[in-house]
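Researcher: I'm preparing a figure for a lab meeting and need a structural model of a single chain. I don't have an experimental structure, so a prediction will have to do for now. The sequence is pasted below. Please return the structure as tokens so I can convert it later.
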Amino acid sequence: MTMILTNKSLEKEKKAIQYKELLADEHHQLALDKAMLLDFVHLVVANKQRSGEYSNDRDELRIKAGKVLSELNL
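Model: Understood. Here is the structure written out token by token.
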């Protein structure tokens, strides 16, 4: 009986480690996604240039938004 409990506890520990690794991977991916979205937001809210025009026109922003959405699988 002790052997069964030991094997079960080892399996439980193994699953706990796998779950922690999965959470770490998910956390890392969410951090990357957040960074990508923040970069895009900074691009969108960029100030006007000295000439009075914006750095990116609407079409460029639409293209960039499409790339961001497809990279995020949305």
